[in-house]
Amino acid sequence: MFKHSCTHLTTLTKQRVLQWLGTIETVLFDADGVLWDNDKPIASAVNAFNTLRAAGKRNYIVTNNTTVSCDGILKKAISLGLETDKDHIISASLSVADYLANKKFQKKVFLVGESGISEELANLDICSFTVKPEPMNKSMKDFTLELKLDPDVGAIVVGRDDNFNVPTLIRANSYLQNRRILFLGAGMDKGYPIGENRRMVVGGGPIIAAIKTVSERKPLILGKPNPWMLRRPISAGLINPETTLMIGDTIQTDIMFAYNTGCQSLLVGTGVSSLKDVAKIRNSGNDKMMVMVPDFYLPNLEPISEHLC
Amino acid sequence: MFKHSCTHLTTLTKQRVLQWLGTIETVLFDADGVLWDNDKPIASAVNAFNTLRAAGKRNYIVTNNTTVSCDGILKKAISLGLETDKDHIISASLSVADYLANKKFQKKVFLVGESGISEELANLDICSFTVKPEPMNKSMKDFTLELKLDPDVGAIVVGRDDNFNVPTLIRANSYLQNRRILFLGAGMDKGYPIGENRRMVVGGGPIIAAIKTVSERKPLILGKPNPWMLRRPISAGLINPETTLMIGDTIQTDIMFAYNTGCQSLLVGTGVSSLKDVAKIRNSGNDKMMVMVPDFYLPNLEPISEHLC
What CATH number should be reported for the domain whose range is A7-64+229-308? Predict the structure, then answer.
């Protein structure tokens, strides 16, 4: 009954919230902007996470962050006070690796990204390499013509890449001119606001946009909002979307992901998207966009802990 | 009567071609892919250019290339055998500079681009600066937070930039968070194919796509297909669109530009777009796209000289 209503949980009675929470078996938490803000924990979320777990919910962290592996995400989560374990961390890097392993991919990956992806690929015995930092030490024409391509490359995988530059763009595009080479992206996340005046740490989205523009090829995005992210726990019977709540801070990834997987959704105002963004969608009059209106909204997760304690 | 018909000029009688050419007073030539292919002249086009000039047409070179200034383009044109002069070179760099001068822009430009743009800006007394090559010598978070912005910057201008990288992306986005700062692009050109297997020298398009994605702002593109490019010669009475033919190799820029300015258009098959691309547009069933079907087509410009000699 709350579907795409953006109901403020604080406007419901405690009894009504508890009744609803009683129907939820699993809670999926996005990480950046929900559980932590760069290196700082978001206190209300850490409390809510641990309180929900103590109340018997199965909590997962589901993140498009590709800078560190699932092990790295676990380490950070524990250091910030979250009670969880490796089996409950799902990342876009893992999703990409799982996709290639599922295809029995035997070739090499040219990775435009960080160690978060290369480690997950290696964990599933998939060979990847990066070429960075790669200088443009000759004319662009000579660089492009003289570029040696590895004939064993079968896929380009793109995530956040701090070393991305024009030589990498040319290299990726040169591979992608061969239509048999896969073009995979971890997530279209534009980045994450930090500090004052909305400065941004940039994500994989802008890099994918650049490669897409020059190559005229569409990437397959395997992080949120692709429901592929939940393939393994759903097929193992660990997650039932009908009784699962996704808590996220970004409409285009988290709330769309909840819609694509059939989970319920809660937008929290501690990260990228705001109620203004929800209003924009509602005012757009675009039916296709309306699925990105969340079921619930909270400015922060404090009320969850309060209601359960 | 030939509007958006993609008529192959070779299928018309010599008399019919001469009759039509008799109605043309001005011919606009794109440069890369039409007059030259990197450093090599396209012989049929050089002949056609000079023959048309000898036949009394006013020829202009109208290019989105921003790596060199109009002076540089003139120098190259003359060295490749084209008979022209400075007054008949129109570039996207000049168009950007003209736009800012027309607005009586008094602030500084942060330029994501090459000297072609900075020289044209300087010619119109507009101050610009680049920061390159800029290394990412700390964490992306620290780089972003510690970045010093120049309060005098009033516009970001983007063209092809061989030094483009993540630090530049973050710098551009940090400026663009201030909505009063203009976001101008020279052209959305994805690049230019060279050598075998469609390797590409990349243009400003992919860079603009990356900045657009992270900033969520739309750039004003002042190169082709923006009719602003012809503002000065049209207002000076030097060009009458009705009696002007645009010859180009790229549908999205050149042919669209002809449509936007009300000129006639001829697609030549020596560069980026092919008849396959025209067929794709025709088959798309999208009425908005149909305006990008050229009036005429030639695989190369040889027949123009043959008919006039």
Answer: 3.40.50.1000
Dihedral sign for Cα B98, B100, B103, B108, please.
negative
Decide if B32 is catalytic: yes
> How many Å apart are CA B281 and CA B276, to the nearest integer?
9
B195, A145 contact by CB (below 8 A): yes
> Nearest 5°: phi and psi at B149?
-100, 145
Tell which residue, B60, B106, B103, has the closest CA to residue B224. Answer: B60
- Which residues on chain B place their C-beta less than 8 Å from a C-beta of chain A? 38, 136, 140-141, 144-145, 147, 161-166, 169-170, 173-174, 177-178, 190-191, 194-195, 197-202, 205-207, 209-214, 216
Q: Which positions in chain B touch A199 (Cβ < 8 Å)?
A: 144-145, 147, 170, 173-174, 177
Q: How many residues does chain A have?
A: 309
Q: For residue range B203-260, what is the model confidence (pLDDT) as tens digits?
A: 999 999 999 999 999 999 999 999 999 999 999 999 999 999 999 999 999 999 999 9
> Which residues of chain A make contact with B161, given a CB cutoff of 8 A?
166
B210–A212 CB contact, under 8 Å: no
Residue in chain B closest to A148 (alpha carbons) equals B199
Same fold yes or no, A7-64+229-308 and A94-221: yes
Provide the pLDDT for residue A173.
97
B75 Cβ neighbours under 8 A, 6+ residues apart: none
Distance of alpha carbon B26 from alpha carbon B258, whole angstroms: 13
Fold of B7-64+225-308: Rossmann fold (3.40.50)
Per cent of chain B over pLDDT 70 is 100
Q: According to the 3-state scheme, what is the secondary structure of B68-120?
A: CCHHHHHHHHHHCCCCCCHHHEEEHHHHHHHHHHHCCCCCEEEEECCHHHHHH
Q: Which residue has the tokens 């030539």?
A: B29
Q: What pLDDT sits at residue B133?
A: 86
- Domain A94-221 is classified in which CATH homologous superfamily? HAD superfamily/HAD-like (3.40.50.1000)
Tens of pLDDT, residues A52-94: 999 999 999 999 999 999 999 999 999 999 999 999 999 999 9
CB B231 within 8 A of CB B178: no
Tell me the chain B residues in contact with residue A192 when contact means C-beta distances shorter than 8 Å.
none
Q: What per-residue confidence (pLDDT) applies to B38?
A: 86
CB A170 within 8 A of CB B202: yes
| ipTM of this predicted structure | 0.94
Residue written as token pair 């994500």: A203
Domain ranges of chain A: 7-64+229-308, 94-221
Distance of alpha carbon A212 from alpha carbon A197, whole angstroms:
29
